[in-house]
Amino acid sequence: MISHFSLSSQIFVLVCCTVCGADISCRNEDGEAVDWFIIYKLPKYRIDDIGSGVEYMYLDSSKEGWEMSKYMINSSQGAITNTLNQLYMGKEYKSNTSVYALYNDGPPDLIYIQKYGHTKGALLFDRSQGFWLSHSIPHFPSFPEKGYLYPSSGKFYGQTALCVTYQYQQFLHIAKQLVYLYPRFYNCSVPAAFLADLPQLAQLCADSKPQLSSNKRVQQLFSAGGEKFVSFAKSENFVDDIYTGWVAQELGADLLVESWQRQGHDLPSNCSLAKHTMNIKKIQLPRSILFYSHNDHSKWCVSQLYEDQVTCLGDLNREMGQLWRGGGLICSSNPLIYKAFRQVVDWYIDC
Ligand SMILES: *[C@@H]1O[C@H](CO)[C@@H](O)[C@H](O)[C@H]1NC(C)=O
Ligand SMILES: *[C@@H]1O[C@H](CO)[C@@H](O)[C@H](O)[C@H]1NC(C)=O
Ligand SMILES: *[C@@H]1O[C@H](CO)[C@@H](O)[C@H](O)[C@H]1NC(C)=O
Ligand SMILES: *[C@@H]1O[C@H](CO)[C@@H](O)[C@H](O)[C@H]1NC(C)=O
């Protein structure tokens, strides 16, 4: 009788896993698995308008462009919540068959420690697959036992987040990039069964710093759906502006950069090297949502020329203090992503 019972419950779990698509992945606005999505959280203070600070626009491969979400970023529904709830709801963070890490240079509640990379994100995967979420929101996401919470400090400025679903093998490459980023893992677990594959991730999780063989690294990544992304990761030892000193030259494209620049610390538009980097000053999203870059904490860039068609989302601002920080960019040549970001550039400073 007892064995009967456990057999039928195993069958139930099996059926549920196939039917409800329980594979760990990025989740769209309706909770369905998607290969990737991007959100643009709108700033509260806009030009001639004040918003709630929790509205956001959503983009994935099934859309034609930015779509205003019907959810708020602090609610229990929506793409980011659905994605992170795979960690929070199932107590997946206690599982010994999956790996997770929440990282942020400014974690929730804890004090700021300067030595880590200026990088924010979350990973969750098992032997099959999982997601890597990279974002710009300080003090986010919340500790696993607290459930999904959005910090009130994250309401004022604009923010972006990129989620990509990867198969297990890709996380071995991602782990190598993370070593350069040197993220502050404030909650993580790398169970024993993963130690042989992911020794450096386990070191980061144990708050030790793995050895580096250079000061920066590029890695191609392929999503579960076959979409190509390129991860650029620099360590604190590469003391330069990641956009001008490296990525623009490596991509061979002039870049328009949106980042959060504080007066007196900002790096000006720079045309000294072969490929130029120019600061965006004003954004216009669909529905005439207009705001200045100083109200936008997101960090992204697009090629100035449509034929170069490259978009990157990442960690670093064009700021003096961040030359000395670890951080990276994830780039894509997807035309839909490019159009979405290139078209919203309203004003930038040429050299
Ligand atoms: C989300 O934020 C808005 C704006 O600050 C607030 O009115 C609302 O109560 C918040 N909702 C939740 C669930 O925290
Ligand atoms: C994983 O957890 C299960 C259930 O708690 C336990 O039976 C199993 O021995 C654990 N496996 C390893 C490799 O630690
Ligand atoms: C997450 O980190 C916080 C702060 O160190 C700690 O209080 C909490 O217990 C951690 N949670 C887990 C699940 O490790
Ligand atoms: C432009 O950027 C390069 C690379 O970061 C730097 O070496 C150079 O000093 C900058 N030029 C100006 C005028 O700021």
From TrEMBL:
Top EC class for this record: hydrolase
Keywords of the record: Hydrolase, Signal
UniProt organism field: Oreochromis niloticus
Signal peptide extent: 1-21
GO biological process terms on file: apoptotic DNA fragmentation
Reaction(s) catalysed (UniProt annotation): Endonucleolytic cleavage to nucleoside 3'-phosphates and 3'-phosphooligonucleotide end-products
Protein name per UniProt: deoxyribonuclease II
Keyword rRNA-binding applies: no
Family label: Belongs to the DNase II family.
EC number: 3.1.22.1
InterPro entries the record matches: DNase_II
PANTHER family per the UniProt record, alphabetical: DEOXYRIBONUCLEASE II, DEOXYRIBONUCLEASE-2-BETA
Molecular function in Gene Ontology: deoxyribonuclease II activity
